[in-house]
């Protein structure tokens, strides 16, 4: 089974196989979404008890996937794009004001998305292992979608980009929101599945199945690199 037949949802059962993407230098970009310190930092479990310790262990598979699979895959994508002179862009969640009043409502509601990440503080920075280099563009957002709350659509259009390779976290939240926004703006989107993670592997796999073939093509990092020009 290849990317052309895998991860088929109910809607695409029996649909024809998609054509190979034609990725052209100057028209394809890599977008790394929300791989920030706040999501990779962990407390010392020896300091935790009760529900806090249970949540620590519940998140362990995510951290194992991030360090063992996702970050190495993003590093390979970065090396492939940079080595070919192709555009690399980043998106990150960060508040422009210290009190976070500029955040969207979804980032103010109680619960998981209730984040206050001032733009200049360490938790909001992109993790060092995949940090931007040179003049690579970083957009700062207070929304899930990297297009809705930034000028990213305009930037991509000005760069002449038609195809966007997406990776990062979380598959079922900011990655999915960005993919849908890109698709609605008529960008051709590919998601590198082993360069993404959700809170659980079940959520990751389910979201990829939902998005595949309508909002994006879902491929492995190896498959993406195989289509890159040059």
From TrEMBL:
It comes from the Bacteria. The keyword GTP-binding does not apply. CDD domains: cysteine_hydrolases. GO terms for molecular function: hydrolase activity. This is Amidase. The keyword Hydrolase applies. It comes from Pleomorphomonas carboxyditropha. Residues 29-223 form the Isochorismatase-like domain. Pfam families: Isochorismatase. Keywords: Hydrolase. The lineage of its organism: Bacteria, Pseudomonadati, Pseudomonadota, Alphaproteobacteria, Hyphomicrobiales.
């Amino acid at each position: 089974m290849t990317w052309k037949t895998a991860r088929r949802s109910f809607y695409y059962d029996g649909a024809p196989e998609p054509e190979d993407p034609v990725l052209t230098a100057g028209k394809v970009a890599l977008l790394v979404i929300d791989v920030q310190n706040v999501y990779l930092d962990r407390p010392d479990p020896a300091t935790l008890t009760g529900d806090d310790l249970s949540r620590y262990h519940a998140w362990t598979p995510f951290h194992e996937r991030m360090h063992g699979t996702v970050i190495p895959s993003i590093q390979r994508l970065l090396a492939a794009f940079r080595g070919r002179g192709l555009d690399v862009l980043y998106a990150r969640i960060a508040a422009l004001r210290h009190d976070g009043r500029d955040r969207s409502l979804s980032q103010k509601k109680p619960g998981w998305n209730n984040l206050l990440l001032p733009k200049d503080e360490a938790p909001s920075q992109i993790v060092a292992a995949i940090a931007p280099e040179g003049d690579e563009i970083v957009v700062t957002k207070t929304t899930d979608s990297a297009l809705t709350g930034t000028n990213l659509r305009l930037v991509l259009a000005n760069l002449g980009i038609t195809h966007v390779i997406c990776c990062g976290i979380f598959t079922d939240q900011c990655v999915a929101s960005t993919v849908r926004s890109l698709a609605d703006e008529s960008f051709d989107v590919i998601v590198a599945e082993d360069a993404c993670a959700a809170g659980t592997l079940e959520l990751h796999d389910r979201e990829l199945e939902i998005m595949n073939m309508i909002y994006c093509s879902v491929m492995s990092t190896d498959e993406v690199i195989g289509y890159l020009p040059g």
